[in-house]
Write a structure and sequence with these properties.
13 helices, alpha/beta, Aldolase/citrate-lyase_domain, globular, TIM Barrel, 8 strands, HpcH-HpaI_aldolase
Length: 277
Amino acid sequence: MQAANRLLQALRTGSGVSFGAWQMLPGANHARFMARSGYDWICVDTEHGNIAGEKQARGNEEYWQMHEAVAAIAACGVSPIVRIAANEAWMVKRALDTGAHGIVVPLLYTADDARKLVESAKFPPAGRRGFGSPFAMGPTGGVSQFEYLQTANDSLLTIVQIETKEALENVEEIAKVPGIDVLFVGPWDLGNNIGRPVQGEFHEDLNAAIERIRKAAVDNGKKAGIYCVGGEAARKYAEQGFHMISVVADAVALPTFLSNALETAKGGKSGAAVPTY
C-alpha cells in the first residue's frame, strides 16, 4: 500500500522534494487533466474549492465529487490528497474513506488539536478511526480490506496547516506530536493572522514565521510544506528546504493562462508572470 502513495515515497525515499497542484474546480476529467501534468500529488480542496465534500457530507448531497476526484487522480498513478474544511473527526473519516493518500487539515491552534487529529486519522490502537468503507482500497493500490486495515496507519499522510497566530506560537509543540507527518504553511492566512497581510512581497515578519515553521518541522523529524501560486515561488521554497510544495492551483492557472494568451494574441506583452512573492 505504501508503494501506491507517490507523495509518501517522494517524501521518505525520493529526492525529498515533492511538487503538487491544487484542485479547486470539480470534475473527474478535470482531475485527470491535472494528474497527467507531471505532479506527484493533487490536493482536492473541499474547504475553499468548489468541490462538494465535507460541507455537504452529512446529507450526502453531491458527496460523489470528492470520491470521483480521488479515484481519477489515483488511477493516473498520482497521490490524491484531500483538504477538509475543519479539524472534525467525521470530516477526517469521510476524506480517508474515499481512498485519499492523505489529508490536509486547516485551522489548528494547539498540540492538543494535532493529537485530536491523529486520533481521528488512525485506526486503533493508535487512534479511533472506524473501518468500513468499501471504496478506500482501490485508490490505495487495490489492496484487500485486511491489508488496508493493517497498513493504513503507516501509509497515509496526516498534514496540518500552520496558518493561525496560535498555531505559529505553538508550532514546536505541534511538530512533536507523533502521527503528524507534514507541517504545511498557508502564507495568506498566516500573514493575516500575524498582522502582516500579503499585499505584494511578503513582509519580513511573515518570511521569518515561514522559516520558523520549516525549522520546527525538520528539527522534529517531520516534513515542511507550503502553498504557492507559481513556479518561481515554488522553486524558491524548494531551495529553502521545503519538501511538499504546491506549485499552483487550477483556479489561478486557468485565468492566468487565458489572459496571457489573449494578451499575446493582441500583440501585447507575452508571458505575464504569476505572482511569485
